[in-house]
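Narrative progress, year one. The postdoctoral researcher (J.K.) led the effort to move from monomer predictions toward full complexes, under supervision of the PI. The following entry was the first complex the group processed end to end, covering 651 residues in total.
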Amino acid sequence: MEMNKDTMLDLYRQMWRMRSFEELAATEFKAGKLQGFVHVGVGEEASTVGVICQARLTDYTTATHRGHGVVLLKGAEAKLMYAELGGRATGLCKGRGGSMHMADLEKGILGTNGILGAGAPIAMGVALGIKYKKLDDVVFCYFGDGQSNEGGIHEAMNMAGALKLPIIFVCTNNQYGMWTPLTKASANVDLAKRAEGYGIPGAAVDGNDVLAVWESAGVAIDRARKGEGPSFLELKTYRYYPHSVGLPDPWRPKEEIEEWRTTRDPIDRFGKVLMAQDVKQETLEAIEKETVDEMQEAFNWAMQQPFPDVTQAYQDVYTNLAVEGRTV
Amino acid sequence: MRNMNMTFALRDTLRQEMKRDERVFLVGEDLRQGTFRVTVDLHKEFGEERVIDTPISEKAVMGAAIGAATVGLIPVPEIMFADFFTCCFDEIMNQMAKMRYMFGGQCSLPITLRMPCGISRQAAAQHSQSIEAFLTHIPGLKVVYSGTAKYTPGLLVSAIRDPDPVIFLEHKKLYRDSADIGDEDQIEPVPFGKACVRREGKDITLVATGAYVNDCVKIADAMAEQGLDIEVIDPLTLFPLDTDTIYKSVEKTGKLLVVTEENLRGAWSGELVSIVAQDRFSALKKAPIRVGALDTPIAFSPPLEEYIVPREKDIVQAIMALK
């Protein structure tokens, strides 16, 4: 496919921004500076970047529990995200949400989600709203292979198909639902084939090839914008970290993880494509370093932010109804 | 004023709000027909874009409502029988109720979830339940459950105009109840958190919900002939709850009876008794009594169903114990 070099370099940068964000989050979580659960998507950058970097500001997305990358690349500010991960008052959601409830509605980011598969019915509803308002925006609905067996995913895909809604179902198939491999979770591991059951187009794509992802996502987006209905993309990829940072990871063969890291890494692969087009290695290294610095600066800012006042514990439960706090 | 039964009054209220605001739409299963006829034929007036028949997928119905609300619409989803809320409880409890709070107040979700509830026509264990305790327990939700036809349409107006998620419970027996309601397009909102004193009295405070409100008024009228003066209160909204009216009544009577169709263990009625005991203990002259269904599922066979939910004689017995 044709793509100009500036766009390609930007994709490369966005992949590094996601990885640098996630690596720093993982490091600082292990160092005890971030709390809760942190699910990082290191290794899955092509499947995120190749789709969400085509979104317009007015498009919408839902994200999964492993959704920092989607949130960041749909336009949320890294420093506000780190502040949210740190439970700070100035975090993206005032510190009330954390990693699994991180939203930025002005940017069309409807949140990471702590309930697997729960983003799909909501994303479908957003698509219904877009159609209702006769706009040509689209919705990206991310989920993983593990979530693909949740009922809500099926209900949402079926209804989106029936109502021809402008939504792209993006399945990041990293081949494991927590510790259980997809081969144990389903008799049909070719998830893209499920699309046929809902009467919508499905495509299985090498999720570590950012250009292949870009191309297939482009077709799906185009179709949704034209009012032709939903599509399903299965992006085959891998995560390098355990399900959640700090958890044991005894069920995936070490050699398998190593093989994906060393021979199929999405950033390495795209770097080689760029170098074959005469981009200098120093240019790529400079991009990497810039994103590491960007995230470090954002993190440092976040760690200087105050924790919320306890009165924030009982705000925003309702829009027009006060909830009482404690008396002592 | 027009005299209408609740089926048509609620339908007329939906029509009024859909005419008033283009953002209001209905979504649910078989709405064009309307299982209880509340939504029947509204699609002819507003189109199938605004009266959306969905697949039989409750999670999708609620997801549709939540997603559409986040982009500025005002959905009125219907779950055909309240019992089916279990099929979309995640959407209700973990998504809809919490979204505003979790996201730091970035959004309001003006959703009115209508659900027919309670026993009617021997619908058996999965089509007859009272689910208010599950819902009033959840921070982020408001719960309307009117037993007073005169106010039910106005409460629906308020629910649709409210910025937050509202659960609107409709007892199936009350669809046949009728009342004078406002003229076309002039049904006024009835505020949340304001109870209705259906019958004033000085001897016993009787708080009832749903279909038991009318029954309890009748019983109270009959007991008046025996010299007992019972005050019957319909809270109308279970949350927010008008504690002022209930407390004032208990201060007057010193006695509290709560009659609901719920099975008693973990019921909403227990919450009411506990807050009265905590906040107005010194006003109470006798221990409060709750009358509710047995702690069983609802049975199918008519004599069994009738035995399981509170009967007139159970309510009278409780009144006599408080006398």
